[in-house]
Amino acid sequence: MPPLPRPDQSAPAPVGPTGSHDSRAQSGDFLTTAQGVRVPDTDHSLKAGDRGPTLLEDFHLREKITHFDHERIPERVVHARGAAAHGTFESYGSAKTVTKAGFLANRGRTTPVFVRFSTVLGSRGSADTVRDTRGFAVKFYTDEGTFDLVGNNIPVFFIQDGIKFPDVIHAGKPQPDIELPQAQSAHDSFWDFVSLHTEATHHVMWNMSDRGIPRSYRTMEGFGVHTFRLVDAEGKTSLVKFHWKPVAGVHSLVWEEAQIAAGVDPDFHRRDMADGIKAGAPLEYEFGIQVMPDDGTDTFQGIDLLDPTKLVPEELVPVQPIGKLTLDRNPTNYFAETEQVAFHTGHLVPGIEVTNDPLMQARLFSYLDTQITRLGGPNFSQLPINRPHAPVNDMLRDGMHQTAVHTGLAPYLNNTVDGGEPEVAGANDHGYVQTERVIEGRAVRANPASFDDHFTQSTMFYRSLTAIEQDHVVEAFTFELGKVFEQSIKERELAVLANVDTDLCERVAAGLGLPAPAGTPMEDVFVSPALSQIIDTPGPIAGRKIGVIADSGSDLSGIGKLRTAAARRGATVHVIAAAGGVLGKGVRTQVVERTFLTVRSIEFDAFVVAGGTTPSTDIKLIVLLQEAFRHCKAIAAWGDGTAILERAGIGTTEPGVIVGDTAVKAFNDAVLSAVGLHRAWDRAAAVMASEVAPAKPEAGAVKAKPAVKAKPAVRAKRARR
């Protein structure tokens, strides 16, 4: 038996983990730290002046972030659902005027990269196509050390201060009692948070737009979100925002597609990327920067550059391309690479520095802390995917999962035992020396007054969209708020929307069956056409898929011609038939790659019915074509293949429907151009048809209409609402 406690010994008081005798619940009426200290402000980190850097002494920030970082083991707390690829970044050399970072400044220099795309809210087992923000994280293995650009597909964020990050994620995650709903923001706690924290409005507008459901990773824009400071070889500084511009254009799914994909192919985005790379169609992006003067104000034309809920319109500061990213190799092992890769916003190289953005300041602490727990200790940088491609002599020793065998007797400086090595590098030795700057101010929990404008850029975003894109925003808000149970939350969010745009608020309110509150939206706001995704000129189609409906009586030669024409542009053709096998005999055979049972419209960007195909009453084929038509995809047929379209109720004169007598060059070119437009938006924008002149058919064989692009006059009219 163990000895009894002596009088001078005492066990901890019999209280629960939250200070009460009830171990299941929080206690007390006031917010406190984990030590029971009452907290007067949990919305602002402690800074040196309202525009200053965050102070390390902010124990509440560190405790709150640390606990959040360690909440889930072993998957990431956020961005758990991800996919990745290897590639190369090639510098154009044009950034030499603003940064001394070698991988950007030297023309033609190539740098190995590893890029991980992800959703934010869902678990590893969730679906790719949910409405969510996407991560766009790039690890550059440069000669001067590793640089991680940990960005998103949306240029602004929900919150202005990193101390709120646990709050917004807690609000967006599934309810803690029943773990519902998974990977969705359409529930009470999310909308409760964002309607109370109106700084989230701009990001919410982006998330409720088509940007929240990207078509693929290859058609997804990327942003560094924060304002960074670049330093050139002479020590001159500039403020910049980073952009990734997809060569394939910026395109999205429609909402029904996203829902279908989540059910029939939850791996839709990662499959598209892996299949494209395997087929020889790499993902390509241009890397660009918006450059603004570092004049000490941290502002540009009234826009606070330290506010992560604000963007700088490209019409005011054009994006200058400085390099190209090509992703052309799939991982060998998902766990070893995609799952174990560790990004950190503090992984910087000489020539790139951070600013006083309070969200960025918290991330500098949070990412490192998270990786230590998630990957089992401080030596995560020794995992193969995380190892720098530059010499490392860090004097860091031991710790869990230490795989290096260190030599020497003096892991400290200064020393004489090891001959004074390693040396400390100065600026001339490519050492990372921060730019000197004045830091002063009162220790306060506050934001500058410029952070208080939560609606102007939200209004700018909405009014910069075309009519069809605005329709999608209205539908998204109506769907999401329709899933909210508490009417007071719906009413509060409508009050937020009333300050963004009156028409938006009224339409959402009508969909919810609620009265539209009055607001004070900006009447005269800058409109940025660059924020619209809809195009009127066909773009690249590399990596796109075209489905051809056929059977044993089809014009197999015509299919071969279309396949060849598509392959020249990097697209692939897949034959779809009632049953698997091979169609035809001899040199003109076509392998059936999909059947009516295994295909849904989401997999393809266009459908073509081959001439000679026997009209079918198979309901699965009819639904397939009707779905594609409803999703505004290009649909085509040659010869008597048009009879199948008619059976599906698809008129051959509808926008985006292409017909021809045979699969000649003009027909194939028209099909591929329609794919390059991404959608035939005319079908969903009939009210704008009078503003768009119909395209003339080619040589009497091809009939099609282009997608709708709002004209400047239309934009101006919306801006004046």
TrEMBL record:
List, as start-end ranges, the regions of compositional bias called Polar residues.
25-35
Q: Which PROSITE patterns match?
A: CATALASE_1, CATALASE_2, CATALASE_3
Which cofactors are required for activity?
heme
Query: One MF term in GO for this entry?
Result: catalase activity
Composition skew (Basic and acidic residues), residue ranges: 40-50
Q: Where is this region: Disordered?
A: 1-52, 701-721
Q: Gene3D superfamilies annotated for this entry?
A: 1.20.1370.20, 3.40.50.880, Catalase core domain
Reactions catalysed, semicolon-separated, are: 2 H2O2 = O2 + 2 H2O
The enzyme's E.C. designation: 1.11.1.6
Catalase core domain: from which residue to which, for each copy?
32-421
What are the Basic residues biased-composition ranges?
A: 706-721
The UniProt similarity line reads: Belongs to the catalase family. HPII subfamily.
Q: What does this protein do?
A: Decomposes hydrogen peroxide into water and oxygen; serves to protect cells from the toxic effects of hydrogen peroxide.
Q: What is the protein's given name? A: Catalase
